[in-house]
Here is the input.
Amino acid sequence: MKKQYFCSMILNYIWIFLILAAVIMGCVQFFAFGDTDIFTEILNSTFSSAKNGFEISIGLTGVLALWMGIMKIGERGGVVAQFSRVVSPFFTRIFPELPKGHPAFGSMLMNISATMLGIDNAATPLGLQAMREMQETNTDKTRASNSMIMFLVLVTSGLTLVPVSIMTYRAQMGAANPADVFLPILLATFFAAMAGLISVAIAQKINLFQPVIIGTLLAMTAIVGLIIWAGMSVEQSKFSMWSGIVASALLLAVIVWFIIAGMVHKINVYDAFIDGAKDGFKTAVGIIPYLIAILVAVGMFRASGGMDLLVQGMAWCFGAIGLNTDFVPALPTALMRPLSGSGARGLMVDAMAQYGADSFVGRLVSIVQGSTDTTFYILAVYFGAVGIKDTRYAVVCGLIADFFGIVSAILLGYLFFY
Here is the structure.
């Protein structure tokens, strides 16, 4: 089997492994331990996961329709083209197969910006818009292009400047300072993004030692440093409040900007929005099979006890070599994070409820949750939206970013809170 074909089948192998491992674990639970309910639990997980996948897709319909409608206004009003020109010097070097000023550059920038601000609902439709635009210039419509892979690995690394949702969960769980995990999350997700960028650059033979690339990365590092300084200088509660206000204000500013630009260019803003919203509805329907497939497999593996066994085995291994194992209760969240965002979020909340939001484990699961994004969910949704079947090495590079993000999260958790 050729290496390229093997890489394209990784997601397929993982999907098969999760289902077969769940069935095997169910047999072990039944015959060795007499758990007569295990097969029912595994089967019920398929129904609940399928329902969850459908509900998530339907829930995305409104958001996709809204933001793809707004994007269509920006596209016809010339704003997306302006974004493309601004980021073109950097993007043309890490996306060399896309022509200068390609419309996908603007969509990618807005997607990454929304992710950095913690506005996940806006990030997804913007990212799907970028995938659709890249697909238009893709010579093989079923095979992921180099640009798609680079973009999705950057997305899966989940670079986040303001983890609003995690701070909100911590506040709901009674944390004294909900934003105390801000700094380690920022550092962990930055390391994950750099690892993802470097891994794809190596695979695609992109020279990162170009002045424009180095200058951009240094500027990003300076921005991260400025936010770290702000986070350390401002009272945590006020920082959390103002970060949410700034994120919301920027999002509203984008909407108003797009509408005004459409008016200036004398386009029918309402018709443009409707055309984009229709595309959003079609996209939401198209991702349903892909989303259900991955969520069902993850749900079966979790219901069978396979995830718990994997975590216990890792704890034994770490203990055997003399490492501190206090981080082990956070491993379920770490292992679930690349597979299921909602699953990892549930495990994070469960850990905070069990150990306390301000405990070492409570803080560590928050850092892990914010250190990277849901790799398999993103790959399934984004590739599925444009009909890509051959994902090549996207999974491998995405998991490399996840690995560095999660390891960094654990080390930073010890550094800041142990």
Q: What stands out?
A: The radius of gyration is 22 Å. DSSP finds 19 helices and no strands in the chain. The mean pLDDT is 83. Residues 3-417 form one domain.
